[in-house]
Amino acid sequence: MEFHNNGLILVSLLVASFGYCCFLMPLLPKGITRLLFLLPVFYILSIFPWIFSSIALRSLSSFLVTWITSFKLILLCFDQGPLFDATTSFLDFTLIAILPIKLREATQHDDHVHTSNGLVTIGVWLLSILWCLFTLSTTIWLQFLVPVVIILALIYLSSTSSSATRLARAVLARYEMVQLSDHPENSSSLQKFWGRRWNRLASDLLRQAIYDPVRNGLIMIGVSPLAARVVAVIATLMVSGLMHELMFYYITCGARPTWDLALFFVLQEVCMAIEYAMSGSAMPYWATRWEPVEPSVATWLTLGFVSVTGFWLVLLPTLRKVEYECRTVPKVW
């Protein structure tokens, strides 16, 4: 696996950007001012996936770094989101920014956690630095040496006063994983599938960054709650479609967009709008004109619709254009 020539520089810039955000954002007034100061950071996040030639790492970094981290920073500009409570610690801020985790809520058993913060900091940063050196190195001796050092470090931790156990307990006590999905196979409607069950991490961020502001803004200017909700759903899925097109751009090594993914989400949002408009809560008159569909039948219809349209507009275009190893990458600077 080969990496972009400027990979180590980009990793350093990414870490420096998190420090910049962690310590500078609380000093600036929330809103547009913070967004303007974050423009260079958004650029770094957008070019970061190009350091990887592997499709697995490229797609993962485009999702977690380019998409999720960007939305977390946007929410931070308005004192919202998971990063708002993590600006007091650079380590917390960095880990929460790039990983699907959040700070665990304080409990009455937090005393032993504070005594292990030193172990958490040392252990996480040591392993992170060693992993970066290993993945970004091009020399054989360094790729051989770093795994040996990691193994020796783990052996040392496991053999000295149960440090490894205390480190694991400290990490688990301080952070918790964000729920990524909630049994999407049980979705009985498109609204439940996209809004509550599928990709909860992205859905929650889209709801906070797009859906809530659009809906609340429209209601404030006099738009009816029903129309505001429909427009907010459409706007949210449009943004989701654009972000998926961006991921597709990274996966295909910079191939020209075909907009199949955007069309997929446009189709989903239109059907969701129709689904909500024809529901009993939106139009009670129509709800009395037919018998409600059995939940099991509704589930099969929902999953069938998503599967067929996903296969047609997502899977097939991806398989046609995907490149597992990028031979060339777009010039990013």
TrEMBL record:
<dbReference type="GO" id="GO:0006629">
    <property type="term" value="P:lipid metabolic process"/>
</dbReference>
<feature type="transmembrane region" description="Helical">
    <location>
        <begin position="113"/>
        <end position="133"/>
    </location>
</feature>
<dbReference type="InterPro" id="IPR032805">
    <property type="entry name" value="Wax_synthase_dom"/>
</dbReference>
<protein>
    <recommendedName>
        <fullName>Wax synthase domain-containing protein</fullName>
    </recommendedName>
</protein>
<keyword id="KW-0443">Lipid metabolism</keyword>
<keyword id="KW-0808">Transferase</keyword>
<keyword id="KW-1133">Transmembrane helix</keyword>
<dbReference type="InterPro" id="IPR044851">
    <property type="entry name" value="Wax_synthase"/>
</dbReference>
<dbReference type="GO" id="GO:0008374">
    <property type="term" value="F:O-acyltransferase activity"/>
</dbReference>
<keyword id="KW-0472">Membrane</keyword>
<dbReference type="Pfam" id="PF13813">
    <property type="entry name" value="MBOAT_2"/>
</dbReference>
<keyword id="KW-0812">Transmembrane</keyword>
<feature type="transmembrane region" description="Helical">
    <location>
        <begin position="298"/>
        <end position="319"/>
    </location>
</feature>
<dbReference type="GO" id="GO:0016020">
    <property type="term" value="C:membrane"/>
</dbReference>
<feature type="transmembrane region" description="Helical">
    <location>
        <begin position="6"/>
        <end position="28"/>
    </location>
</feature>
<feature type="transmembrane region" description="Helical">
    <location>
        <begin position="35"/>
        <end position="53"/>
    </location>
</feature>
<comment type="similarity">
    <text>Belongs to the wax synthase family.</text>
</comment>
<keyword id="KW-0012">Acyltransferase</keyword>
<feature type="transmembrane region" description="Helical">
    <location>
        <begin position="226"/>
        <end position="249"/>
    </location>
</feature>
<feature type="transmembrane region" description="Helical">
    <location>
        <begin position="140"/>
        <end position="159"/>
    </location>
</feature>
<feature type="domain" description="Wax synthase">
    <location>
        <begin position="180"/>
        <end position="265"/>
    </location>
</feature>
